[in-house]
Amino acid sequence: MAVVIAGIGSRETPQEICEEMVLIGAAVADAGGWVRSGHAEGADYAFEQGAGRRCLVYLPFAGFNRKLPMLGRSILFTGESTEWADRMVEQFHPNAKGLRGRAWAFHRRNAAQVLGRKGDRPVDFVVCWTREGRKLGGTAQALRIAEHYEIPVLNMFFEEYATAEKVMTMLEPKD
Length: 175
Prior knowledge:
6 helices; Rossmann fold; alpha/beta
């Protein structure tokens, strides 16, 4: 299983789910896969803890969340190479015209977590947790993009994906 996942979700992800996310990140890394995340507290960092150096950590701006040790491979997602991601923000954010500065940078970073640094390498799956299974905040932007590109979303809020074991079963290649 050499899958690439976006490991994302709420900063308020429950601790027991974060512990499962650490296990998922480690299993993906151990199998030679990659996790893409964003270095935020909660879900993002749990996946990063599990995947370690097999986590590509997309940072929206220099110095983002430096209070957390960087465990993955950081990618500062700014500059000229982000024009495609700007288009994603414009296309998928319900209030793109109202976004400025850091808020815009966060949503641009969310596009890269799902579609890759240049927008041409989508993940195989998005694994996340959102309160009540709803599309909220930056995670919602990533989920709208995933839905558009028909990327499966495994939201650990729902019982069918609530443990690492259940998620890993979904990530295994089907014959």
